[in-house]
Design a protein that fits this description.
The protein has 545 residues and is α/β, with parallel strands linked by helices. It is built from 16 helices and 27 strands. A 9-stranded mixed β-sheet has the order 2-1-11-10-12-13-14-15-16, sandwiched between helices. A 5-stranded parallel β-sheet has the order 4-3-5-6-7, sandwiched between helices. Strands 17, 18, 20, 21 and 22 form a 5-stranded antiparallel β-sheet that branches. Helix 3 crosses helix 4 and helix 11 packs across helix 12. The protein is globular, with a radius of gyration of 24 Å. 46% of the residues are buried.
Length: 545
């Protein structure tokens, strides 16, 4: 079995039921996708232009049309096909159509600039690119540098001169099942690393890994036919995609919300009767802050059916979850850990039954093994810090065209994650920090996540990032970039006083009040902060008493 079999099964057994809903609170009718106008998507909801829905049957048929179109243009098994689109109803049918054709699907980060798009097209040997209207300006800047042999397909109205109209072409293709047999050992997808340590690397994954992700997700969160999953993070990333895979396996509805305002999230949960919501740390914090300030009253919404909130993609401050459980005591909560090299979330997870272990990322996920290793590969004793290594069906095949980087992280069947962690006496794993983010100051190792978690307990702080700044005598010092909550004032002296709750060597030596940049998956963009602040004078840096 491969993952496309699940879509075909849902079409066969649940064909007339809703598979996907797209909600864009800011969308105007004039900007609505022409796929709706081409009658490829059912139930366009003319009275609510920002809401569209698609049945399982339409989903499967549209994927077949995409596959048959690619085959008609000479694409073969292993051809790499890119997707550069925002979250929308068309994204997943295109994704599955690429797979059904035996091609390799390559989602691209929607925040890439033109030169980064070109870099990824070249690195992954992408021969076909589906792109949406939001990317025309960026594509304009690079299309002359793209070889004419590449097929550019525009998903929207009025395609630029260098691209073909995807909808007009695919609408004439048959919706019957394409005659392609897929082997679980075939390469199915290329995902790009987040690029937080430089230019992204292209990660190869097999079809059997995609299917295993469905099984892991459904095992962890017990999706049933009656569940409704609210998906807000970008579908180009393994996190959102693999959490949605639980809905695919159970044949249940999912809602794609294009917006992160707390009001929009709560309204969508109410109107669509969502039961499972995956949030990133900033969104959960914004929701709680809006409730605490009185700007939002949760009693104005129907939230009784909401059973599970889970968070991943970054370390989760325990203080945030304590606040959440105080506001929503009946919610189950789970933390999920993963990385693109392990096909996203699930290789480690807390488990809804282990709320007493909040702060840990959890235990080995379904179908996964975990160990914590020293630089020589030996396992470290419980309680000691080492590098987290994982083994399971989602471990990548390789970094495409980069054997040196592959050899750094793949050790036999084990993937060394680059995350420093430790295990307690009960077998629960705690992240300490990224190996490359560790700050060495005066010979002491500082783990920024520990300092960040401490600072986030301050009621005035909305977000914080701790980085190392070069310093002649100590080598590095810890600097805290602090983003305050709206309409709040706070001084450096207040922060230094608050930090007296930390051991002296862990206290930040420099405080900077500024916004904390995060990428679309919620990770702090520390390379951006290092470039921004590593050249600043450090004459103000001082040890707090």
């Amino acid at each position: 079995m491969v993952i496309t079999d699940l879509l075909e099964k849902n079409s066969r057994f649940f064909g007339s039921e809703v598979a996907l809903v797209e909600i864009n609170p800011t969308e105007e009718r004039d900007n609505a996708s022409t796929w709706r106008e081409a009658s490829l998507i059912e139930n366009a909801m003319p009275d609510a232009p920002y809401r569209r829905e698609m049945t399982w049957r339409t989903f499967d048929r549209m994927a077949n049309r995409v596959a048959n179109f690619l085959l008609s243009r000479g694409m073969k098994r292993g051809t790499k096909v890119g997707i550069l689109m925002m979250n929308c109803l068309e994204f997943l049918p295109i994704y599955f159509g690429i797979l059904k054709a035996g091609c390799v699907v390559v989602p691209l980060n929607y925040r890439y600039a033109g030169d980064e798009i070109k870099y990824c097209l070249d690195l992954a040997d992408i021969e076909v690119l589906f792109f949406g209207p939001e990317f025309v300006e960026r594509m304009d800047s690079i299309h002359n540098d793209i070889p004419g042999t590449r097929l550019l397909l525009f998903v929207g109205k009025n395609p630029p001169a260098y691209a073909e109209n995807c909808m007009a072409l695919i609408n004439f293709c048959t919706s019957s099942q394409p005659p392609i047999l897929i082997d679980p050992e075939d390469i199915g997808a290329v995902y790009f690393s987040s690029g937080t340590t430089g230019f992204p690397k292209a990660i190869l994954h097999k079809h059997k890994g995609l299917l295993a992700s469905c099984q892991t997700e459904q095992n962890h969160h017990h999706q049933s036919k009656d569940d409704v999953f609210l998906c807000i993070p970008p579908l180009y990333h393994t996190g959102a995609k693999m959490h949605w895979f639980g809905s695919l396996l159970s044949g249940s509805k999912a809602v794609l919300l294009r917006g992160i305002k707390p009001e929009w999230i709560l309204r969508t949960i109410t109107e669509e009767k969502c039961t499972i919501v995956w949030l990133l740390v900033p969104w959960a914090q914004d929701m709680l802050d809006a409730i605490d300030s009185g700007r939002i009253n949760p009693d104005d919404y129907m939230l009784e059916q909401w059973r599970l909130m889970h968070i991943g993609a970054q370390p989760v401050p325990p203080s945030l979850i304590r606040r959440w459980k105080k506001q929503f005591p009946d919610h189950e909560y789970d933390t999920n850990y993963g990385l693109s090299e392990s096909l996203g979330p699930g290789c480690v997870h807390l488990g809804v039954e282990n709320i007493n272990k909040v702060g840990a990322i959890g235990v080995p996920g379904h179908l996964w093994e975990v160990k914590i290793v020293a630089p020589d590969g030996s396992e470290v004793p419980d309680g000691e810090v080492g590098e987290l290594a994982v083994k399971g069906p989602g471990v990548m095949v390789a970094y495409y065209k980069n054997p040196e980087a592959t050899a750094e992280v793949l050790h036999g069947d084990w993937l060394w994650t680059g995350d420093m962690a430790k295990k307690d006496e009960d077998g629960f794993i705690y992240l300490v920090d990224r190996k490359k983010d560790v700050i060495i100051t005066g010979g002491e190792n500082l783990y920024p996540v520990q300092i960040e978690d401490f600072l986030r307990a301050n009621d005035k702080i909305k977000d914080v990032a701790v980085i190392g700044l070069p310093e002649k005598r100590l080598g590095e010092i810890a600097a805290a970039i602090i983003e305050l909550k709206p309409d709040v004032t706070c001084s450096e002296e207040e922060i230094n006083e608050f930090c007296k709750g930390l051991p002296r060597y862990k206290r930040p030596r420099k405080i900077i009040f500024a916004d904390v940049p995060r990428n679309p998956t919620g990770k702090i963009e520390k390379p951006v902060l290092r470039r921004r602040y590593c050249s600043i004078p450090l004459v103000e840096a001082q040890t707090t008493d």
